[in-house]
Amino acid sequence: MTLIKCKQITKHYYRGSEQITPLKGLDLEIQRGSFVALMGPSGSGKTTLLNLLAGIDTVSEGELIIDNEQIHNFSKNKLASWRADHIGYIFQLYNLVPVLTAYENVEIPLLLHSINRNERHERVSDALENVGIADRYNHYPRQLSGGQEQRVAIARAIVSNPTILLADEPTGDLDRETGTAIMDLLKSLQEKQGQTIVMVTHDPQTTKWADTVLHLEKGQLIEQEVRS
Amino acid sequence: MKLLPIEYATRNLGRSPSRLILTVFGSSLVVLLIMIAAGFMVGMDATLNVSGSDKNIMLLGAGSLESVERSEVKMESSGIVSSSIKGYKTKAGVEGVSPEVHIQIPIDIQGEDRLVLIRGVEPEAFLVHERVEIEYGSLPRAGHNELLVGSLATRTLGYGKPKDALGKTILLDDDSYAITGVMVACGGIIEGEIWAPLSDLLVTTQRDTLSCIVVAIDEESGGTRSQLDGFAASRVDLELAAISEREYYAALAEFYKPIQLMVVMTCLMIAIGGLLGGFNSTYAAFASRVREVGTLQTLGYTRSAITFSLIQESILTASTGAIIASTIALVAIDGYTIRFSMGTFTLLITTEIVTLGIASGLALGVIGAIAPVIRCLRLPIPQSLRASE
């Protein structure tokens, strides 16, 4: 079942007076429950596409339909509320809030929902348990290793049961062993919970966890590799 | 709008202790200066406002209406004024006509010469200046070189408590005077003065003229201001001019307006320096969190929610500064004695000034956050996420 539909998406922005077009008339469909890796050289448009899917950037032309909602027509505030409901985002550098504990970092997206304290506690605890970091719940980011920080970031991304989990080079700042553990974790979220995952990566090794690999170049989809 | 938890704002304060201290110091400096400027104006106005009475008319030397200290009135004028006009306030047969000498004399206080206003008076002065009360001690006796000191003047003389001045001696132009009493005058300018018997002061200063004659008119007995104006105009030989005490002190207050303005301007200029310093550190504090702000937006927080949180943070810092400033103002500034040419007044930190200080702190928090918040939130989210920490 199609979850994400991109129709002739173009994105322009300006650097000074120069117009940059990182995406040019991109057509794309992503199925619900799939694990998609976006690959391509720098400037191919993969991060721009991820930003559009996350609703943190808007298309210049074309249509972007996610879960039957035409998000290209959304206002900034509507997009913010839509992000809170539908998107979990994992950053390469984790982007945890340094003044909040692991527990509070994971709780922060839930404060955007009308959820009582008990349920919040249950969901945060479950998320931390899911990513194997429950014993570090009261640690601040500075007290965690890179891999642990990324686990907390994943817990934060999944705690509100998002429609799509987006990951921007989630292992880019980790050593190989930790990176593998993180990829295993993402894969298990897909397999056990049916989570749709779209991941940007430079590393061909990490694509082995994905079931679809999309190759972008100069803002266009040049190859779609579906693995069994 | 769903807001960020308050813990986010409070804990952010501790991110950089040195920056926090700088910002709190900046805001407390600004608020303290605002309160000092306001306390200066209120204190001076309060002193001058309670110092005059419409029923007291001052007869000064013609041409010296603006300064009683420069005024010279012939000694015999007092008797002539008393006998020529009816309608003075009287008590036990004593008429409210007070011949006075106002003179500033340097007094050696702990090795430093301080100018203090000495007023030479007769007993009638207590009938004319009805607000004056002896708080401690007794009236000075003529011929004994004794003094009555205003409660604020005791501070000028270096005494911690007014009562401590009793029995002490001071030198006026090489003549030794003993302090026999401390007076109060409802916060009026007299509290900053020293009163001596007129005859003793005339001897000490080798003076043979008065500064003024202050008369208390009694309207019920037919006394009017116009009578005194008419008297001054008709007795050209005495070279007198009449002005009500209230008008005199109002003119004095007007004279000091530029000084008040200068104090306010000086405080404002220093405050602006503190304000800019505070802005700068707030700016730096927020600018270093652009990526974090982008992350919060990615999670679904609106710009309004983040703005609210950052302003909360700024208000917390500025109001901490305001509380520190208010405490310093109440403990160390309230009642601080300022000497000026006409006497002494105290800086008054009233409830209104404390409210002004706290409100300034809150305003500072909001205003100080605006530019950094705009800087933090103006970037599109993808660019914010690329910003360095």
* Biggest sheet details of chain B: 10 strands, mixed
Q: How many H/I helices of chain A?
A: 6
- The appropriate CATH architecture of chain A is 3-Layer(aba) Sandwich
- Quickly count the helices of chain B: 12
**CATH fold name of chain A, please?**
Rossmann fold
User: How many domains of chain A, as an integer?
Assistant: 1
Determine the N-to-C terminus distance of chain B.
27 Å
User: What is the N-to-C succession of helices and strands of chain B?
Assistant: HHEEHEEEEHEEHEEEHEEHEHHHEEHH
DSSP strand (E) fraction of chain A?
A: 25-35%
The chain-level structural class of chain A is alpha/beta
> What percent of the residues of chain B sit in helical stretches (DSSP H or I)?
40-55%
User: How would you name the CATH homologous superfamily of chain A?
Assistant: P-loop containing nucleotide triphosphate hydrolases
Biggest contact: A-B, 28 and 26 residues
Question: What would you note in describing this structure?
Answer:
The complex is a heterodimer of chains A (228) and B (389). Chain A has one domain: Rossmann fold (3-Layer(aba) Sandwich), CATH 3.40.50. Chain A is built from six helices and ten strands. Chain A has helices spanning 46-54, 76-86, 102-107, 117-130, 146-158, 176-193, and strands at 2-15, 18-31, 35-39, 61-66, 69-70, 87-90, 164-168, 196-200, 212-217, 220-226. The model of chain A has no long low-confidence stretch (mean pLDDT 94). Chain B has 389 residues and is of the alpha+beta class. Helices cover 50% and strands 21% of the residues of chain B. Chain B is built from twelve helices and 16 strands. Chain B has helices at 6-13, 17-49, 77-84, 125-128, 151-156, 198-205, 225-234, 245-287, 290-299, 303-333, 351-377, 381-386, and strands spanning 56-61, 73-74, 90-91, 94-95, 97-109, 112-121, 133-137, 146-150, 169-172, 175-184, 194-197, 209-210, 212-216, 240-244, 337-340, 343-346. The longest helix of chain B is centred in the C-terminal third of the chain and has 43 residues, at 245-287. Chain B starts with 5 loop residues before the first helix and ends with a helix. The mean pLDDT of chain B is 89. The interface between A and B is medium-sized, with 28 and 26 residues.
